[in-house]
Amino acid sequence: xxxxxxxxxxxxxxxxxxxxxxxxxxxxxxxxxxxxxxxxxxxxxxxxxxxxxxxxxxxxxxxxxxxxxxxxxxxxxxxxxxxxxxx
Length: 87
What we know:
With 87 residues, the chain is an alpha/beta fold. It has one domain. It is built from two helices and five strands; from the N terminus they run βαββββα. The protein has helices at residues 9-20, 77-81, and strands at 2-3, 28-29, 38-40, 56-57, 68-70. Helix 1 (9-20) links the parallel strand 1 (2-3) and strand 2 (28-29). The model has no long low-confidence stretch (mean pLDDT 86).
């Protein structure tokens, strides 16, 4: 379950969409906490490994094909939607 602040609501919507579209159940706590900068571009729930792999940082080698991508602080909803990867 992730936590968020209201300023992250646009990213929270993308985060939920990216995980749910791959079969994961999502939940949000309404407190400050981790951000929604890790977007799921290809880690399906069915057949997922017992341990979730680390996310590739956006912009480093291999991020374009990584199932999980971590975007930098300050990333906006628009930045993610325009990164060239499909949710």
